[in-house]
Amino acid sequence: MVTMKLKGQGWNHYSVCPNIRTRLNILQNEQRHCQVVSCGGMKFERRKMDQSYIVDVTKKECSCRLWQLNGYGCVHLVATIAFLNVTPDRPYIDPLYLATFFHNTNKKSISGMNGMNMWPSTDFTPPLPPLKRRMPGRTTIKRIRDASERSGKQTVSKEWKKVSCGIFKEKGHNKTTCTQVPRPTKTNVTKKQKIMQTQESSNMQWGGEDDVMGDAVEPETDEVMRVNESEQVVRVNESEQVVRVNEAEELGRVNQVVRQVNTTGQPDKRKNSERILKLKLAKRVESEGSSVGSPMELD
């Protein structure tokens, strides 16, 4: 506040604050090409090209409504004031932008105060911190480490632990990285090559058996082959005739059994669903095997 007071001491020869004065000077340069026409009284019409605005000096109003918003006027007001040959001063500008208002605002000062070490002590209870409240979620179990303990990892450090081999009990390596144990070497054989090898081995086995069997069997003549084929055809025909005779005999037996069952005269059993309906409704149900001549009524 003291700096603002010192700043306003050099504005004694200003009626309007310097910032507002510079803005009004800019508007004066813009209104040079405007034409102002009096409408009677303190009303004026400002024209420029095909645009025109009405300015009422007594009511401090302009049809562009910028004078009512900012409080220090617009280019139309500045053109009207220049037409009247008057300087933009107190009557046309809001008192908020006057130098006297700035001086009255900052004329008083704020007194200083001592620090906390100079404050007098009291007998009242000092303010206490708020009660500790358990926050939602699972509580943390991990210990909060010191800055010197952190080594860039979140796991337990193994800096001082020595690794020993599980086979030879030697320090410095484990059984997975042990170099003394002989390990099978991997052959650079692809899956396709393995499949081709297995197929070749199987073909070799089958070909060898055929060769052995071919060497053991003696070649036959054409006449012997024809006789064997004719014998096989005769055997097939005889077996087909036997099968047909057996099927005919079985069909005859089945038909005889069916005729015997039908000639006994026993009625067919009623379906379970029809029995349930008869028991529930106490009425006769006409269907296959029903006794229409002597119906039975159930109570």
Automatic annotation (TrEMBL):
InterPro entries, A to Z: Znf_PMZ, Znf_SWIM
Gene Ontology MF: a single term: zinc ion binding
Pfam families reported in the protein's UniProt record: SWIM
Keywords, alphabetical: Metal-binding, Zinc, Zinc-finger
Source species, domain of life: Eukaryota
First and last residue of the signal peptide: none
Annotated SWIM-type domain residues: 53-85
Keyword flag Zinc: yes
Name of protein: SWIM-type domain-containing protein
Annotated source species: Lactuca virosa
Lineage: Eukaryota, Viridiplantae, Streptophyta, Embryophyta, Tracheophyta
